[in-house]
Amino acid sequence: MSKLKIGFVLAACMVFLVAIARPAARPIPQPQASLTNDPKLIEDLIYANRILYSQGVLDGFGHVSVRSDKDPSHFLMSRSMAPGLVTSADIMEYDANGEPVDARGRNSYLERYIHAAVYRARPDVKSVVHSHSLDIIPYSVTGTVLRPVYHMSAFLNLGAPIFDSHDEFGDTDMLIRNNQMGDALAKTMGKSGIALIRGHGFVAAAGSIPLSVYRAYYTQMNARLQSDSMKLGTVKFLTPGEAAKAQVATEGQAGRAWELWKSQVGKIE
Amino acid sequence: MSKLKIGFVLAACMVFLVAIARPAARPIPQPQASLTNDPKLIEDLIYANRILYSQGVLDGFGHVSVRSDKDPSHFLMSRSMAPGLVTSADIMEYDANGEPVDARGRNSYLERYIHAAVYRARPDVKSVVHSHSLDIIPYSVTGTVLRPVYHMSAFLNLGAPIFDSHDEFGDTDMLIRNNQMGDALAKTMGKSGIALIRGHGFVAAAGSIPLSVYRAYYTQMNARLQSDSMKLGTVKFLTPGEAAKAQVATEGQAGRAWELWKSQVGKIE
Amino acid sequence: MSKLKIGFVLAACMVFLVAIARPAARPIPQPQASLTNDPKLIEDLIYANRILYSQGVLDGFGHVSVRSDKDPSHFLMSRSMAPGLVTSADIMEYDANGEPVDARGRNSYLERYIHAAVYRARPDVKSVVHSHSLDIIPYSVTGTVLRPVYHMSAFLNLGAPIFDSHDEFGDTDMLIRNNQMGDALAKTMGKSGIALIRGHGFVAAAGSIPLSVYRAYYTQMNARLQSDSMKLGTVKFLTPGEAAKAQVATEGQAGRAWELWKSQVGKIE
Amino acid sequence: MSKLKIGFVLAACMVFLVAIARPAARPIPQPQASLTNDPKLIEDLIYANRILYSQGVLDGFGHVSVRSDKDPSHFLMSRSMAPGLVTSADIMEYDANGEPVDARGRNSYLERYIHAAVYRARPDVKSVVHSHSLDIIPYSVTGTVLRPVYHMSAFLNLGAPIFDSHDEFGDTDMLIRNNQMGDALAKTMGKSGIALIRGHGFVAAAGSIPLSVYRAYYTQMNARLQSDSMKLGTVKFLTPGEAAKAQVATEGQAGRAWELWKSQVGKIE
């Protein structure tokens, strides 16, 4: 039950760390063509990287992306690096197949096809998060279904399917490293807000950056609550009716957490 | 068993965060009519917001209020925002029905009716806390009764009833968003120091701000102790006689924790 | 198994907090007669307060004392306050019965009789710690015996008896608030390095301040290890022969942890 | 499941602590003959000390070493001190038998023979870590075999044998304090990337400093995942085929975590 707090501690301390580490960690931002019509989109993407790291959803690995408003078939994501250190100079544009439009020598995440596939399959999705969260992996390897324990994670009512690459692809290196595997993951995900990846992590998707961050964060909270509750006794989850109404109410308030998380991350570049 | 510590870490780090975040997060305080005869009441309310956040009782959500000393039928609470960022300019006055007296464009918490109902039902209560604590929700969804494991949480001897909105109101969005639901919660709470809300969180109430904070904090500690103890074996809880005496002794020392927590929060505005 | 780390995080963050909180929290030190022949004794006692707080052994409550080198029948301990904020001006001298020698209006801890009783019963003891550690209380309320899981806590081989005040004193407020209860606790403790207090906490004692701090800290570590190990299977504890030898080896290295912890606490007053 | 985060929090806070503690903790670096042809080797060794401490793999105890590039039969390791405080002036050279080449009054770790033995037995090993990790000890005392739960710890497919000194040496003080015990440990370790030491800790070894740190860190993560997963149900571990491929893919990305961890540690001396 300690994990919500731990997430916050992570927030606090990582932000501090990134802060003191910045001088060492920052490359000089290089001028580049605008990747979007709305500059706020890149700012929010950088905040999402920093927040997901500071909240413990991402560590040295994992990534978050946003659909381009300039070309909705494209998406924006950092070059291959630790999310907690991402700056505007690190943001790259990817096409519908997950290939970089203008790499300029920057490496791409091997698993960028997760994002490409979800954007192709889900026009309603504007932002995607991929994480190796230790809270959620135990559900993925035991086939335990995540269900909404409290109102904040009511969106789990949309489903939390588990994708096991072994079923279709046999022995792989577990990475979603091509569009074929990405499409299989997106198919398993269906219309859900998240999908678990067996022995690997999970994917969260939503109609905006703050909401994909909210869903990734509260999926972790629910995972902790569900594990702790199951140890105490039989769990009374939200009813489908409660969850449908609670999702509207709580996701409508997601901005309150987003503003707090931004204030914790402090100034970005 | 790690959760007390985690709470403290949260304290430390959040306070630090709020500190560095303050420049970005603070609106310019606006002049306003005094909401109370005792200015210390507002100062303590702001400290309570910061402390509950820094101790992990509140996160981006939840709230704390105090009964007005100017009009005891009214209460004071922050506008709708993350408790960790609250300043004096954010404190609003609410009437006996939970409606803002002078909103001046500031939004109110949807669940302010929790506070209004408890103040109406409990003349002895001077301060109310509402939290989504991950430590306590597992008890609310499994029907596990919180009982005092150690002297610090002896007040649980007063009871820790669980309110399930579904019993009386069926499928709702789980929020206590009107006085009817607030009254039902207050009725379930009765004379207890806390009440759990199924799939949502809990409410703590006491005769002063430091004591409502103390009860909210030590309810979490007891929840962690009780879960950890039940994993080890059969728990010998405090006897009713021990609890009655220990409550007097420990709540009489609550000021020591309050002073520490204030020193951790540092200067407020 | 996360708890060692949590303790360290507590260390880090609390120290930081105390640091920023100090200006607000510090009273002006007042001149006073030397309480000891060796000024280092007071310095170490203050470090012990700060370290035990920063390591999560103490929170707003609990205390640590040292036997006076000026009058070995007396001991030194802070006035009644949060250990994390203690300075040299707060150190008081107590006589063999736990009564203050020169209170000068300063309040004393209600449970100072724990210390007085152990010093009376154990000439070999030079320092005593009393804590409400959440790691250890579950053992006290379930009657689970702490045994050495690893070499660092080999001193548990000396025993870890549980004192239940209810056996001899019936319904009390759970506090060791007189010499009669203190003597009963000391009798239960016998020659052990620690004793648990049911529904309350524990006491650690040793021949020096760094060693009493070491024992309090590693009793927590062992509690976490033992709980986590019991969840995995049947535990092979250290054999009595291994524990006897390992205690000599590890307690002989206690200074390495003490120096680290001091460096974490930073400068004291 | 909270433990990955906790590790990171440790990282953040410890680094901060070490930072503020440095003035107090740092000895004046003394001029000395170069221990290596590649100065980066010492820099990386110091980073490894700081990172393993900040990530919670090491605390006041434990150590990390690197094989000398000047004399591959020798290795480099800090003098006996807390890893979190190590500077270049503290690095000593040890011969193939674990004896210091030029002690200059500096004390050596009692368990340096762990390193000497592994370097003698494993020409492929260039760096060795020894830790008392609370995450891993429960596996060592219950005989629970660590197996790869996710791709990041696929190297566990190489094996995670448990060394119990009692089998061959009977009642000892549990320390690997001579070459005979070191050789027995190395023999048990065989070609694995790690070996557990019953009631004591574990050893990680790899072909470079960043990779030995990576393996030590992700062994902890896997320990947490495996414990949490086993509580939920039957665990589907990586298949041998998946693990073999995933090890190549993930260890090939270890540099991303290393760069992040270095940025968290900040400037070293």
Task: Please write out the topology.
The structure is a homotetramer of 269-residue chains.
Chain A: H1 3-25, H2 39-54, E1 63-67, E2 75-78, E3 91-94, H3 112-121, E4 127-131, H4 137-142, E5 162-163, H5 165-169, H6 179-189, E6 194-197, E7 201-206, H7 209-232, H8 240-251, H9 254-265
Parallel strand pairs in A: 5-6
Antiparallel strand pairs in A: 1-2, 1-4, 2-3, 4-7, 6-7
Question: Which structural class is indicated by helix and strand composition of chain A?
Answer: alpha+beta
Strand-residue proportion of chain A: 5-15%
Order of helices and strands of chain A: HHEEEHEHEHHEEHHH
Q: Which stretches of chain A of 5+ consecutive residues score pLDDT under 50?
A: 1-31
Instruction: Please state the CA-atom Rg of chain A, rounded to the nearest Å.
Output: 18 Å
Strands ordered across the widest β-sheet of chain A: 3-2-1-4-7-6-5
Largest interface: A-B, 52 and 55 residues
The number of distinct helices of chain A, counting runs of at least 4 residues, comes to 9
Quaternary structure type: homotetramer
Largest sheet of chain A: 7 strands, mixed
Q: Residue-averaged pLDDT of chain A, rounded?
A: 90
- Large-scale geometry of chain A: globular
